[in-house]
Please model this.
Amino acid sequence: MTDQAQILPGTLDLLILKAVSLGPLHGYGILLRIEQISRGALLIEQGALYPALYRLVRQGLLKAKWGASDNNRRAKFYELNASGRKRLREEEDGWNRLVTAIAAALSA
Model:
Protein backbone atom coordinates (compact mmCIF):
# COMPACT_ATOMS: atom_id res chain seq x y z
CA MET A 1 0.00 0.00 0.00
CA THR A 2 1.30 3.45 -0.90
CA ASP A 3 1.35 6.53 1.32
CA GLN A 4 0.51 8.76 -1.64
CA ALA A 5 -2.98 10.18 -1.92
CA GLN A 6 -4.97 10.73 -5.09
CA ILE A 7 -5.55 14.37 -5.86
CA LEU A 8 -9.24 15.24 -5.96
CA PRO A 9 -10.71 16.96 -9.03
CA GLY A 10 -10.53 20.72 -8.63
CA THR A 11 -7.80 20.74 -5.98
CA LEU A 12 -4.75 21.20 -8.19
CA ASP A 13 -5.34 24.94 -8.57
CA LEU A 14 -5.62 25.30 -4.79
CA LEU A 15 -2.36 23.40 -4.28
CA ILE A 16 -0.55 25.52 -6.87
CA LEU A 17 -1.83 28.76 -5.33
CA LYS A 18 -0.71 27.57 -1.89
CA ALA A 19 2.72 26.55 -3.17
CA VAL A 20 3.44 29.92 -4.79
CA SER A 21 1.97 31.83 -1.83
CA LEU A 22 5.20 30.93 -0.05
CA GLY A 23 7.29 32.68 -2.72
CA PRO A 24 7.89 32.75 -6.50
CA LEU A 25 8.69 29.37 -8.05
CA HIS A 26 9.31 27.85 -11.45
CA GLY A 27 7.23 24.86 -12.56
CA TYR A 28 9.51 22.15 -11.24
CA GLY A 29 9.88 24.08 -7.98
CA ILE A 30 6.09 24.06 -7.62
CA LEU A 31 6.06 20.28 -8.01
CA LEU A 32 8.71 19.96 -5.31
CA ARG A 33 6.96 22.44 -3.00
CA ILE A 34 3.66 20.54 -3.21
CA GLU A 35 5.47 17.30 -2.47
CA GLN A 36 7.24 18.98 0.46
CA ILE A 37 4.18 20.63 2.05
CA SER A 38 2.18 17.41 1.68
CA ARG A 39 5.06 15.44 3.26
CA GLY A 40 5.36 13.36 0.11
CA ALA A 41 1.70 12.35 0.03
CA LEU A 42 0.93 14.32 -3.16
CA LEU A 43 2.90 14.00 -6.37
CA ILE A 44 1.74 16.13 -9.29
CA GLU A 45 2.41 15.07 -12.88
CA GLN A 46 4.06 17.67 -15.12
CA GLY A 47 1.38 16.97 -17.71
CA ALA A 48 -1.24 18.25 -15.27
CA LEU A 49 0.83 21.08 -13.77
CA TYR A 50 1.67 23.17 -16.82
CA PRO A 51 -1.87 23.43 -18.24
CA ALA A 52 -3.04 24.44 -14.74
CA LEU A 53 -0.32 27.11 -14.51
CA TYR A 54 -1.29 28.56 -17.90
CA ARG A 55 -4.95 28.57 -16.84
CA LEU A 56 -4.17 30.37 -13.57
CA VAL A 57 -2.11 32.99 -15.42
CA ARG A 58 -4.94 33.51 -17.95
CA GLN A 59 -7.42 33.89 -15.08
CA GLY A 60 -5.22 36.62 -13.61
CA LEU A 61 -4.44 34.71 -10.40
CA LEU A 62 -0.71 34.28 -11.06
CA LYS A 63 1.84 36.41 -12.79
CA ALA A 64 4.69 34.83 -14.73
CA LYS A 65 8.11 36.19 -15.62
CA TRP A 66 11.30 34.73 -16.98
CA GLY A 67 14.34 34.37 -14.74
CA ALA A 68 17.27 32.11 -13.94
CA SER A 69 16.84 28.93 -11.92
CA ASP A 70 19.24 27.72 -9.22
CA ASN A 71 21.25 25.87 -11.87
CA ASN A 72 21.39 29.04 -14.00
CA ARG A 73 18.89 27.86 -16.61
CA ARG A 74 16.20 30.07 -18.05
CA ALA A 75 12.88 29.33 -16.35
CA LYS A 76 9.45 30.89 -16.02
CA PHE A 77 8.70 31.87 -12.42
CA TYR A 78 5.16 32.10 -11.11
CA GLU A 79 4.07 34.46 -8.38
CA LEU A 80 0.77 35.02 -6.60
CA ASN A 81 -0.86 38.39 -7.16
CA ALA A 82 -3.65 40.11 -5.16
CA SER A 83 -6.42 38.27 -7.04
CA GLY A 84 -4.63 34.98 -6.47
CA ARG A 85 -4.26 35.65 -2.75
CA LYS A 86 -7.98 36.41 -2.52
CA ARG A 87 -8.88 33.22 -4.41
CA LEU A 88 -6.53 31.18 -2.21
CA ARG A 89 -8.26 32.46 0.94
CA GLU A 90 -11.69 31.67 -0.53
CA GLU A 91 -10.63 28.19 -1.63
CA GLU A 92 -8.99 27.44 1.72
CA ASP A 93 -12.14 28.54 3.58
CA GLY A 94 -14.35 26.38 1.36
CA TRP A 95 -12.05 23.39 1.68
CA ASN A 96 -11.90 23.71 5.48
CA ARG A 97 -15.72 23.87 5.68
CA LEU A 98 -15.96 20.74 3.53
CA VAL A 99 -13.40 18.84 5.61
CA THR A 100 -15.21 19.79 8.83
CA ALA A 101 -18.54 18.65 7.42
CA ILE A 102 -17.16 15.33 6.19
CA ALA A 103 -15.36 14.70 9.49
CA ALA A 104 -18.62 15.34 11.36
CA ALA A 105 -20.52 12.99 9.06
CA LEU A 106 -17.91 10.23 9.44
CA SER A 107 -17.84 10.49 13.22
CA ALA A 108 -21.65 10.32 13.52
